[in-house]
Amino acid sequence: MNPILLALKSLGGSGTIEEINNKASEIAGLSDEQIEVLHNPEKGGQTKVEYRLAWARTYLKNYGVIENSSRGVWALTAEGRKLDSVDSKKVRQFTQEQLKKAKIRSVKDEPDEANPDNALTVIKDVPDETEPDISWREELLDTLLKMEPSAFERLAQRLLRESGFTQVEVTGQSSDGGIDGKGIMRLGGLLSFHVIFQCKRYQGSVTASQVRDFRGAMVGRADKALLITTGNYTKDAMKEATRDGAPAIDLIDGNQLVDKLKELGLGVKTEKVEVEEITINHNWFMNI
User: Fold this and answer.
1) Taking the CA of residue 199 as centre, how many other CA atoms within 13 Å lie in the half-sphere pointing to its CB?
2) Exposed, middle or buried, 123 (CB in 10 Å: 0-12/13-18/19+)?
3) What sign has the CA pseudo-torsion 114, 30, 16, 267?
4) Which strand ranges, in their side-by-side order, compose the sheet holding 14-16?
5) pLDDT tens, position by position, 126-157
6) Do residues 286 and 151 touch, judged by C-beta distance below 8 A?
7) Do residue 88 and residue 170 come from a single domain?
8) The domain containing residue 9 runs over which residues?
9) Percentage of the chain surpassing pLDDT 70?
10) Are both 255 and 143 inside the same structural domain?
11) Residue 280 and residue 270: Cα distance in Å, rounded?
12) Residue 269 · residue 281 · CB < 8 Å
């Protein structure tokens, strides 16, 4: 359990199962021979390490220190970010007590062969109430603007991971030409593109000169570049992003950003009864 917590901290607070497993194995000091041991050679290629880490993630999720999305990305919760370690016995005991209270079968010392990451959990995220006179888009953009710059960069990192990027890192170095992070986008499991991204968390418009500056930081470092803002882009900026003879810059403005967060369910809860009801979880964004 503790290598998973340390792995997530090392990865910037969130990661795919592959990233977490690799980093946790490294932190635990496991040898290649140990990592390659199969859990059940007769029933597939899952290793014993992968099997144990899967159940450890489930326990930690029930304990409220990590969470996961439907797309397989796991992340530290606000409580999890406060911890450097947990008492594994207490975590197991807490989970078993919660399951018993919910009248669900107790988790065994050796669970069955069902996918551990799909195990039923009892911790639920309760969103805050929203003001009825503010549209969900305005409310969400207002929440994003209140985030710390580093938190907004972590949100961008999580967004890219949820969208299929791997090895996503936040650099946040002011001397690095405006590059806030980088990652790899894999297309169809065959092709990969190295991508850098920049985050601009403000209400104004991104100008053509800012796009050109970012392109200058991209040359020689990545195949693609992604510019994310809570604001919008001037017409000249949009033209500059796709100017003939220059590497294209992909742009995401505030409206596209909130739509993507809603689509991925990141801090946004959508319920459909007779009409679609959208709730913004402000605390989720403040504690990412």
Assistant:
1) 25
2) middle
3) positive
4) 14-16, 73-76, 66-68
5) 333 333 334 788 889 889 999 998 899 999 99
6) yes
7) no
8) 2-118
9) 84
10) yes
11) 9
12) yes
